[in-house]
Specification:
alpha+beta, 11 helices, 13 strands, disordered N terminus
């Protein structure tokens, strides 16, 4: 059920707060889990903040994510040229490292990059650009629309975000791995952080072991670049959205399946590769930043509680679990290298009429596993095992990391 009131001080507005309770016959809460109050993913959910977090965690050289450049929303043409430099970002601007074991630099410079709008989502605000001039035209047009929306629009963004988000200019994943007769895809997996504030680790990081594959509506033509070059097409004109946008926003023909059902990916050992990549990124490299945010928020909560009730105990009257969940989007190169594209703090399920039964069963299973995980139902006596079986598709990140040689 959506939260009405809360025993926890409200620190900020959140578009998707979820409160789950276990009650006894008197409806007195036995356990509570609350989503939307943990700060664990706050430095990852926006496109520009993800770039900053990667920089802050000193992960750029690990090639976790494609090479990215931050550009102010109201940048001038001269500033744009200075920030971007003489060429668009390339996947190979950094040397290959431990998160990806292949070293297959082609030596060719890319002529297309991906431009991501500050407030874009679900594929909206994604542009393919072939030059700085083309990129600046898009930024300038969006800036003019922002000014037309009025000062209240900007002030609302600042109040909600604490800043005006930046554009992200990102290297295109190329050549991408193609499946299903030459179609592009990305992998969606889920990461859950459960806070344990009175333990020295402060958080547990879990990964869901059933990864989704979202496949573009149209195949990528073998002659795409040749035809585009012959017609003098650049940037977005070279990239048909039905073939290059894979999240389903551009077409209802986008296919959604589980990775375990895609023979081409299983033959590449992609299941284990995804597990290892996500465990290293979220269970190792991002952990210090997540812990810092959780600790800082807890200090704010305790301070607010003392101000509100200086004589009352700070202990919760019943066990309360704060958790955060995120949909993590990955893309794969032809050589099998994984790149982190986005972290979605409020992942959305596809419309019911676009969801086939096996995939719908997967979504139901995910929510069942999630509720069991965050409420600790598998550790409670008299749990209905038919509803919350002891087997769970969530894996602790440390269980993956401890298997590394």
């Amino acid at each position: 059920r959506r939260r009405g009131g809360s025993t926890l001080p409200k620190l900020r507005n959140h578009p998707c707060t979820l409160r789950v309770e276990i009650t006894d016959n008197s409806e007195s809460p036995l356990r509570i889990a609350v989503h939307g109050t943990s700060a664990a993913f706050d430095g990852l959910e926006d496109k520009d903040e993800l770039v900053r977090t990667i920089q802050r965690c000193r992960c750029e050289e690990l090639n976790i994510s494609p090479t990215s450049i931050l550009i102010k929303w109201d940048v001038t043409k001269d500033e744009c040229n200075n920030v971007v430099g003489s060429r668009l970002p390339s996947l190979h601007d950094h040397e290959d490292n431990s998160l990806n074991n292949n070293n297959n630099n082609s030596g060719t410079e890319p002529d297309i990059a991906v431009l991501k709008a500050p407030l874009g989502s679900r594929g909206e605000g994604i542009y393919f650009v072939g030059s700085i001039d083309e990129m600046y035209e898009i930024i300038e047009a969006n800036r003019d629309k922002t000014y037309e929306a009025g000062q209240d629009f900007l002030e609302n963004i600042i109040e909600t975000k604490g800043r005006i988000p930046s554009w992200v200019l990102q290297a295109e994943i190329r050549p991408p791995l193609l499946i299903k007769d030459g179609r592009k895809f990305h992998i969606r997996t889920y990461v859950v952080v459960v806070e344990k504030l009175y333990h020295e680790d402060m958080i547990d990081v879990y990964m869901y072991n059933r990864h989704e594959v979202r496949i573009a509506a149209e195949r990528v033509s073998d002659q795409e670049s040749i035809v585009a070059d012959s017609l003098g097409l650049t940037g977005s004109k070279q990239r048909g959205r039905l073939a290059h946008i894979t999240n389903g926003s551009s077409s209802e023909l986008t296919e959604r399946v589980l990775l375990q059902d895609v023979d081409e990916l299983m033959a590449m050992n992609m299941q284990d590769k995804v597990n290892t990549f996500v465990a290293q990124a979220f269970g190792r490299h991002f952990v210090p930043d997540m812990i810092r945010r959780v600790a800082r928020q807890e200090q704010m909560v305790q301070q607010a509680a003392r101000i509100a009730s200086p004589t009352s105990s700070s202990a919760a009257p019943f066990p309360t679990s704060k958790f955060a969940m995120a949909g993590v989007d990955l893309m794969v190169t032809k050589e099998g290298r994984l790149y982190l594209l986005e972290v979605n703090n409020n992942p959305a399920a596809p419309p019911a009429h676009l969801t086939k039964d096996p995939f719908a069963d997967h979504l139901v299973g995910y929510m069942t596993d999630l509720v069991g995980l965050v409420l600790g139902l598998r550790n409670m006596p008299d749990t209905d095992n038919a509803t919350f079986p002891q087997t769970c598709n969530f894996i602790h990140a440390n269980d993956i990391l401890n298997k590394e040689p």
